[in-house]
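BACKBONE STRUCTURE TOKENS:
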Amino acid sequence: MATKSKKKKSSKGPFLGLLVVGILGLGSLAAYVKYGGASKVPYEIRVASHKETPPKTGTIRESKVQLITPSRDGTDLKLGKHESDVPQGEDPVVFALNHFLKESKIVPDDAKALSVQVKDGVALVDVTPSFNQTYGSLDEEALLKGISATLAQFKDIDKVQFFVEGKVVESLGNVDLTEPLPVRPKAGSSASSN
């Protein structure tokens, strides 16, 4: 009788094979991260993405703004400007607009900008219902010039349109607001400012 000898199979072979494949895979992944696509992302963005969520589309992030304060010399409107830090957590555009509205002493105390979204260069300003009323013609001029001067400092804003509770504010006294208004004077026109 012939006896067959059984060879013991080593269980280390498949394990070593998987270990080698795993090490090569990890090495390849590390090389890709270091030298591949991830290395092309600027360091500031890679680091910032772990610290805070990116701003929503349509918002403006500034740490300093020009605050506009109106004054009158007879019938001449003067717009004084000074730089201010934006309080942490506040929208810079809303902060600057609300400063102007308060300093104008034209609108009621509870008339405020609630939010601003910028879409295709148009600042869509949501205001409280008390803003939407009729003012005298000099007051209308002062409001619109001051709001325009306030918004013109933000390079992403070219025009403004006002909304109350999601509906377009159609007029400010005699001024038609159904279409967005430009915030910068057209070439050749002058604005009175200080």
